[in-house]
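> @MW can you paste both from yesterday?
MW: sure, first one:
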Amino acid sequence: MKIKPILLAAACAATLGQALAGGEGWTHDFAAAKKQAAEEDKSLLIDFTGSDWCGWCIKLNEEVFQHDPFKEGVKDKFVLVELDFLRDKSKLSEETQKQNEELQSEYGIKGFPTILLTDAEGKPFARTGYQQGGPEKYVKHLDELLEARKTRDEAFAKAEKSEGVDKAKALVEALNAMGLEDEMVASFYGDTIETIKAADPEDETGFVKQIEMKQKFGKFESELNNFARARDHEKALAHVDETLASGEFEGEQKQQVALYKGMILAQQQEFDAALKAMDEAKEIAPDSELAGRIEDFKGRISQMQAQVEASKADEKGDSDE
């Protein structure tokens, strides 16, 4: 069948209007990508990007996605999906823009670039972003993340053959293997969470307690952020002190609360008290990852203190003159 020249030109124009920053091998069509992934037994690699404004997105594209070692390294493992949030809206159809916005909301994407790895159903199993080192290193990184899916699927299969606490433990292993944010786990694995609760009513795995503590900590941080937005340091500090005194949190969560105290005191220019609070925070969980960063925080506070004292000394010198 022959295509009239005018129709062919229109089709080409539409294709150019929907040009993909990632180039050949990528698609905008999420539904089609899921279908292809299911048919070819592949995972989805979804790139949430802003290709005409986001610096790190552009670097990832130029340093990794456009190169043959990346294309060759992923072609048998992933269907590539580009969800572009362009400032120049004319380059994407309204249908594509709507799809992208809906997926951004569904997956809770707040920063760009975000790279999600999902199964053919769209359930995420890993999340990453820009990585230095070029295409070969990025492919290796993706291969490591694919192991999370393998561990997840093996744990789910084990759970299918288990009952009671053993079933719950296998499902907890599956969720932990992915290292996803709590919100994403709750959104896409809510049925798994409910199965864990039913299989382990006495919470021998400690999973339910862990979830509850994370929810409580989220509430604490939300209230603290409200005080921060209002710039009410006194109420923020009181909120932190009350929380520490309550004994509600332990370990790294308690350490984080104590760290917030040091930060608030530093904002109030109570630097000596802030440094003391930092030391107390470190003692709560001295071997934690957060504890390893506390000396850096103390260094910044000391730097702030020196700057404030130098400024006061300059002001005093000016007034003496």
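MW: second:
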Amino acid sequence: MQKQRCGWCVGDSLYEAYHDHEWGVPVHDEQLLFEFLVLETFQAGLSWITILRKRDNFRIAFDNFDYRIVARYDERKKSALLQNAGIIRNKLKVNSAITNAQNFIKIQEEFGSFDSYIWSFVNNKPVQNKWKHHKDSPAKTEISDKMSKDLKKRGFKFVGSTIMYAFMQATGMVNDHTIDCFRYSQV
């Protein structure tokens, strides 16, 4: 018998594996939070499957998403990234990854960790939704609006409310698995 999954991932083995093992699982690891932040910003205007297919290339290109290294990227590294056909070669997004790494560190210094800061928007507990169909899930919420506004105020780029809601879904800050999905009760 086939597992019941959220409709958005069905039919693509990479999507299904991501859905089954990562999507909606609460993330508290600093480096993984930064990875999702970078990937979500690069996803802006594109499909998530495009990013997933290039994820390993992004890991290599961005030094395994070590924000301490990314924060120090220079013009030569930026140029190399813009020549890398394995990732999304968008100058604004490459620059945003560097800027966001620098601001990520500032948040760590202010709050003790990025995890403490970002999870405070949901009172350190995942929001449990009860969607019957994956299309019922909103593109953004009041929480993602507030998060986006605060991140922008702190100098982050490509962190609009829709991007931040996708980040919340990916990192388990919100459980948007449909109620009939086998992962709903697991996360």
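> thanks! The longest strand covers residues 127-128.
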